[in-house]
Amino acid sequence: MAEYQRIHLLVEGQTEEILVRELFGPELTGLGYGVTHSSLRGVSRWARVEDTIRRLLHDRSITVLTTVIDYYAFPGDAPGMASRALSDPLGRVRQVEEQVAAAIGDPRFVPHLVLHETESWVFAAGDQLAAHVRSPQLATRLSRDCVKAGGPELVNDGPDSAPSKRLLRYHPGYLKTAHGPKAIQDLGLPALRAQCPHLDAWLTELARRAR
Questions:
Q1: Contacts 24+ apart (CB under 8 A), 180-183
Q2: CB under 8 Å to 43, separation ≥6 — which residues?
Q3: What predicted TM-score, i.e. pTM, was given to this entire model?
Q4: C-alpha torsion angle, residues 138, 144, 145, 150 (rounded to 10)
Q5: CA torsion angle for 16, 18, 23, 29 (degrees, to 10)?
Q6: What confidence tens digit (pLDDT) does each residue in 104-114 have?
Q7: Which residue in 33, 43, 44, 45 sits closest to 9, CA to CA?
């Protein structure tokens, strides 16, 4: 019998909790993990995030600890944030993740920061969201933004132009914890991974560790 492996996901909020339960959880269970999660409400200071991570790592039953936390508005005092190189967004987020992992210093810890935020995955599911809210023109707007940015994860993180801000501007009735997760689930994980290389790399690493 294979050794039991438990993966724990530390998530940022309710939307991420839904996605862990409905989307990522089944995928990770299929890899052989026992899946648990907890929520970190509010991510304003690195000290709070770090303390939560270190407390979780005291639990030796956790084989892998990972995160589903937005890169957008990640604490400015977190490792790597002040020294980010002027490179592409994928390079910047990977640099921060590497520095966060080094600061924690536990090989069980696999930080994942969602580039740029969970709503970028909704942009990948533009057709599904448009069908759900019965707004065909919404799919066109989301697709146009993705093409212009170079992919859903690259839709930028400005205070007025981040994915979440655009969704509310394009469709004022958008409900973060209802419409977004439903659209992403309708799209499906394989199609989401195909459009989101940073997400795909994270899930590939978790699969590697499950072997």
A1: 180/15, 180/118, 180/119, 180/121, 180/122, 180/129, 181/15, 181/18, 181/19, 181/22, 181/23, 182/128, 182/132, 183/122, 183/125, 183/126, 183/128, 183/129, 183/132
A2: 12, 49, 69, 70, 73, 74, 75
A3: 0.94
A4: 140
A5: 100
A6: 999 999 999 99
A7: 33
Q: 183 is written with which tokens? A: 């659209």
C-alpha pair distances (Å), 66 with each of 6, 26, 82, 162: 11, 16, 22, 24
Task: Phi first, then psi: give them for residue 196, nearest 5 degrees.
Answer: -125, 90
Tens digit of each residue's pLDDT (9 = 90 or more) over 9-38: 999 999 999 999 999 999 999 999 999 999
Would you give the distance in Å from CA 210 to the centre of its chain?
20
Radius of gyration for the alpha carbons in the chain, expressed in angstroms and rounded: 17
Between helices 197-209 and 89-104, what is the axis angle to 10°? 30
Token match 């699969």: residue?
207
